[in-house]
Structures are given as C-alpha cells and as structure tokens.
Design a protein that fits this description.
The chain is α+β, with helices and mostly antiparallel strands and about 150 residues long. The protein is built from four helices and five strands; from the N terminus they run H-E-E-E-H-E-E-H-H. About 30% of the residues lie in helices and about 20% in strands.
Length: about 150
C-alpha cells in the first residue's frame, strides 16, 4: 500500500495517537471535549460505501469498540459518532464525548466557540490514557481471528 497521508486540515487540527488495523487514530486539539478521529488509511475515499464490505465492517468495529471504551474511560454522558465530510472530503469519523454540563449541551460542537488547544502535558497524558485503553481492545479484523 502507498504511504498514507491524512488531509492537511486534519493534521493541523489533531495529534496522532496510533495506527489501527484500518484507521489512523488521532486526538482533536480541542480540550473542551474528549474527541478522537478515525481516518481509514485508504486513498481517494470520501464515503463509507467506497470501502469494501470487509473494510466497512472493520471501520464499524474500530468505531464502536473504541467509542465504547473511550466513553467509559472518560465517564461521558453521550458518545457522538459522525462522518460529515462537508469541509474535509477525506473519509474520517469523529468520536466526540459529551457531558450534560459541557456548555454546549445538547447542541452540536461543530462551529461553536473557539477550540481550546491542549497544553503539552495534558496532551501527553491524554495520549497515554487512550493508548492504555486500546491495550485491552480486540480491534483485529474478523478474518484474521478465524485462523
């Protein structure tokens, strides 16, 4: 596979955490909300249906398992899962944790207020927490589990 590059706007707005079987996992640089991005490492894909059926299942596997664990880790009230693509065409999935006291509840987070960037210590701590959370998750594709 060719070397994968996420859209420059996603790179500018987020920090890399790790590579998953299908996606690159990134942390959005907005400390107001615990917010992860999953970016399938496939060139020229802007819609979920452009992935193969196996890749679609893997995207949902990574999205749902990480979302569930992230919600529990951060003790959030709600997990918002979205793939909009109106500004950045490259397929990516947002996992945004919400709390009923987060200031924007129950409205959307997009285009609301100014992002509050992480300081380096908090960023490192959040990255470490997410990496530790991933250690217990089975994110391997179903096909590889059968062997």
């Amino acid at each position: 596979m060719d070397h994968f590059e996420p859209d420059p706007r996603l790179v500018e707005d987020s920090y890399p955490i790790t590579e998953l079987p299908l996606c690159q996992l990134r942390l959005m640089n907005d400390s107001r909300f615990p917010w992860l991005l999953l970016i399938p490492r496939r060139h020229g894909v802007s819609e979920v249906f452009e992935l193969s059926e196996a890749q679609q299942r893997q995207l949902w596997r990574e999205t749902s398992r990480i979302g569930q664990a992230f919600k529990a880790l951060m003790e959030a009230d709600k997990l918002n899962v979205a793939s909009l693509g109106n500004v950045v065409e490259q397929l990516h999935v947002h996992l945004v944790l919400r709390r009923t006291d987060d200031g924007l509840w129950p409205g959307p987070v997009w285009g609301q207020g100014e992002a509050l960037p992480y300081d380096l210590d908090t960023l490192a701590a959040m990255r470490d927490r997410v990496l530790a959370m991933l250690e217990g998750l089975d994110l391997q594709p179903e096909e590889s589990q059968a062997s």
